[in-house]
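ARCHIVE CARD
Drawer: 12
Card no.: 0347
Subject: one protein chain, sequence and derived structure
Cross-reference: see card 0346
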Amino acid sequence: MGAGHDHAAGSTVDESDGGHSHSGHSHGGESHGGHSHGGHAGHSHGATADSDKRWLAGALAVIVVFLLGEVIVGVVSGSLALLSDAAHMLTDAASIVLALWAIRLAAKPAQGRMTFGWKRAEILSAQANGLTLLGLAAWLTYEAIRRLIDPPEVTGGLVLITALIGIVVNVLASWMISRANRTSLNVEGAYQHILNDLFAFIATAIAGVVIMLTGFARADGIATLIVVVLMVKAGIGLVRASGRIFLEAAPAYLDPEEIGERMAATDTVVEVHDLHIWEITSGVPSLSAHVLVEPGRDCQRARADVARMLAERYRIDHAVLQVDYVECADEEHADHDHAPHCADSHGPVHRSVSAS
């Protein structure tokens, strides 16, 4: 419903837990000012956030120690693969620091103008991680091609030894971050950085063996290009996933059409429109809708039935539902079957089979 659709005539109710009260159902663009998220302790990731911070901090310490050693060996050996790994590990360290900062920021309660709190800071962190992966991939592509054209002298033994140590370090760091909550796009962004670094070390180790056995110095640049492909794939995935949340698209695992039809199929419900589904942050889906019920039926019961179905079937616990009697809502339209309730209704109208 557009900014002009304030359905005060009906019954405006929220989730089955009764934790929220909303007067009116006015949508100003994509801002749902009626939502109050401060009472949702279940979405604050309290203990999980603390454990995430411990695992991320442990991975950060391991990476920083190895990073310093890798830079020294990379300079001495003249290996682009090692130096690129070191650069990548620097972004790994930065991504973990960013993730830790985002977790701390997201834990702040909703207050003042920040009615959703700071949970989207985690999505900003994930998007930044995706963009740094793509930027680093572009730079490494340039350097790899340059070295394929004019390969420098590379010490294969040092490259191999350092890469093998790097594999161990990144396996440990990857394991640590995998113990954190990877349903968080923020944590997943840091994890993808570390995982791609692990792939880079495996490719570097193979390049080191090839250089030692054959003297083929271009193997170093080829290994870098292989890693670039993996980095681009991970970077695009993170940017796309974070972009969906910023654009308030429905989560990929939820089908708005199916959900609207199931809501309309609930007993006593005649119509569902102005259905919006989005994520506040990764793994926290939210829904709002205008629900019309049969005249004389229990609006509270209809609301509770719809909210229960959403929670049980789709795990949508944050649902804001405005419920009206169809006779009250339809005063402006004599022919309800052919005219939508709202002059500027958002999206399709879902009606029960009996009503249609």
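Annotation on reverse: The first helix runs from residue 46 to 77. The beta strands are 11-13, 269-279, 285-293, 318-325, 350-351.
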